[in-house]
Amino acid sequence: MNSEIVRLVALVIFAICSSIVCADEAESNKQQHTFVIVHGAGGGGWDWKAVDQKLSADGNVVYRPTLTGLGERVHLANPDINLTTHIDDIVNVILFEDLQDVVLVAHSYGGMVVTGVMNSIPERIKHAIFLDAAVPNDGMAAFDLWRKSASDYKVVDGHVYFPWTDTKAPYPSDVPQSLKTFTEPVSYNNPSAQKLDVTYIAFVPLGMSIRERTDNSSWRNAESRNWTMRTFDGDHVVYRSRPAEIAELLEIAIKDRNQP
Length: 260
Prior knowledge:
By secondary structure, this protein is α/β, with parallel strands linked by helices.
């Protein structure tokens, strides 16, 4: 009887240890990535904190730098900040942190910045993901892509005040952004940049069809480059209300690139 108990205990211990080993192996086999997330106009790295937390919990390394003059760097705001400034912000994060095989994520205006980063240091980038983001052609500015001009917005002291900008809102909140960031053209003429794996994901808000949402220059430009094209149900800032889903979306996007 005692020997039977000993054998039973041994089997239980073996089963527990086996499950722990399997779990450890599964965890070690889970691919980890280095994400650099570039926020949209008027925003900041603060806006992606919840997405960062989910990605980090999954074992990824996440950077969410704030572009000069925005977010916690709003004290540096001045009308001479341009698109090149913002491109350099991200390039220097990657270079000074010595990041390799970066998954570069762009949201909205961030697509202008990421396009410039791709053109500058394609050798550091493993994959780029454009979330409802601007996809300019070579030599195109944000206002060219959006078919807008300064006269379409409130501009004060060289800064654009978008309709959603509430200067009385407590921080963290969106802030005005230098006009020159929207009028300076970006370069996208590096053959190595044009060969990178890129996924474009359009956010489709309630009440709008996929066809309506994808009828724009950014979608068409991305499609013409044979990027992986996807859609996701949600408004333009869905990452604020459903960060865990967006984090999962980013992880999936890396795996399903170039799939039909």
